[in-house]
Design a protein that fits this description.
mainly beta; 5-stranded mixed beta sheet; 5-stranded parallel beta sheet; 20% strand
């Protein structure tokens, strides 16, 4: 049995599974879903494992063999471990031998020790020989300060297992290895470092991980956890086909996400990010991070599992096509400080049921919510909205109630056209309703306003109620 499953059972790491439907279940093809709990009441998506607890205990039973269990040699700079002679299965190399720091591990020092299940290398190690763990076919957990011969050498995990390049990772790294902790001075995961390590389930860094470079975790199909709280950059295809990730929380410190960084993350259900797209100013559509070269292609790249997106404080604008045709998306949380929503930003988000717009919002561009067929209510009364584009809510066929703010003075042409279920409309401070703005809103039973309203042609249903 693999390590994480075994430890989860033996040490009781597995808790009752949190609801995987953090924003409700998959939306049916008929009527809009009305079963969503308020966002504040929903459990975060989880696979039930406490990775912090796992990290603290996974090496807890490792022993530090005595000096007699090692073959080693010393020089002025420190000790080189030549070979492990003992029989323990879970071991920690001592930081010192004979009072001198252990600074190097020689070629094949642990090679072919098929019973080894955990190995810890101390941070004092600055040089690692070729294939030190080659043939360690039962290894489950590894802590290492280096992923290459030294700090300046190419860094890829397969080197420790006898590989010549990152393309050997999948073949050389044992399928049993599920837990990796990177120590030493490393704060970046280099390009291709864990390329195709498709059995790795949990990654930790002793220091703050600030960068995951291009292709660094490409093809890590079993990966469930990685540290992201200090990230500043996420490279192109960095998490390509990490198909076991259920959620990903990217921090406010992040400044850029590379093209296709999340492509193939087909189980991703919840995404937290500081901006939408590649950065706050470039490629500002979500499809970019999933591999869509232009916004119009995004639909085919979004994971069908993606249900919830949270945009962090600091984001002041959603760009054109920000969430365009993200058809599985059910709920979005937008931050205070956001002032504008771009052209077609949420157009054709056909599963969107819940959206909370911040009070700082001033502008909704053309077609911004076009075709959001399951959006039921729209609360804009507390916002600073003063500009709405044409067709902004065209064919939002499930909208039943709309409240507009005092700051908005005009509804443009076709703004709510086709909102056939709209029953209650509070126009707030609107004084002019443009041509066909309420066309086919035949279910209207209540229209209120604080100002005298001029209705242009095509708004008969509302005009009858004034």
């Amino acid at each position: 049995m693999k390590m994480l499953r075994g430890l989860s059972l033996t040490l009781c790491f597995v808790f009752i599974l949190a609801s995987l439907a953090a924003c409700g279940g998959a939306a049916p093809s008929g009527e809009p879903s009305r079963t969503l709990a308020p966002l504040a009441e929903r459990e975060p998506i989880s696979d039930g494992v406490s990775y912090a607890l796992l990290r603290d205990t996974v090496f807890a039973d490792a022993v530090t063999p005595e000096a007699k269990d090692w073959s080693w040699e010393a020089n002025e700079s420190g000790v080189t471990v030549l070979k492990y002679l003992g029989s323990a299965q879970r071991i920690a190399i001592p930081a010192t031998l004979d009072g001198k720091p252990v600074t190097a591990v020689a070629d094949r020092a642990f090679a072919d020790r098929e019973t080894l299940t955990a190995v810890l290398l101390p941070d004092s190690v600055t040089s690692i020989g070729e294939g030190i763990l080659a043939g360690c076919t039962s290894l489950e957990a590894l802590r290492t300060p280096l992923l290459g011969a030294n700090a300046k050498a190419d860094a890829f995990l397969g080197y420790l297992f006898g590989g010549d390049s990152y393309t050997d990772n999948a073949m050389k790294v044992p399928a049993t290895l599920e837990f990796l902790e990177v120590g030493g001075d490393m704060t970046k995961l280099p390009s291709y470092a864990l390329f195709d390590c498709n059995d790795l389930r949990c990654l930790w860094f002793s220091n703050a991980l600030t960068a995951i470079e291009d292709y660094a975790l490409f093809g890590c199909a079993s990966l469930k956890y990685l540290p992201t709280e200090d990230l500043e950059t996420l490279g192109s295809y960095a998490l390509f086909s990490c198909s076991s990730l259920l959620q990903l929380e990217l921090p406010q410190t992040l400044t850029s996400i590379g093209f296709g960084a999340l492509e193939g993350c087909r189980s991703l259900r919840r995404l937290v990010l500081p901006f939408v797209g590649g950065s706050a100013t470039e490629n500002t559509y979500l499809g970019f991070v999933f591999g869509a070269s232009v916004p119009d292609f995004s639909r085919g790249y979004y994971p069908a599992s993606l249900q919830e997106v949270v945009v962090l404080e600091g984001c002041t604008a959603l760009g054109n096509y920000a969430f365009y045709e993200c058809q599985s998306l059910q709920c979005v949380t937008l931050p205070e400080g956001l002032t504008s929503v771009g052209v077609r930003a949420f157009a054709e988000c056909v599963s969107l049921v819940e959206l909370r717009l911040p009070t700082t919002l001033t502008t909704l561009r053309e077609n911004s919510f076009f075709g959001c067929v399951r959006l039921e209510t729209l609360e804009l009364g507390a916002t600073a909205l003063n500009s709405v584009g044409v067709n902004a809510f065209y064919d939002c066929i499930s909208l039943t109630r709309v409240t507009l703010p005092d700051t908005l003075k005009e509804l443009p042409a076709s703004c709510f056209a086709g909102c056939v279920a709209l029953q209650t409309l509070d126009l707030g401070g609107v004084t002019r309703v443009g041509k066909n703005a309420l066309h086919r809103c035949d279910a209207l039973s209540s229209v209120s306003s604080k100002e005298k309203v001029l209705y242009e042609d095509g708004n008969d249903a509302a005009e009858r109620l004034k």
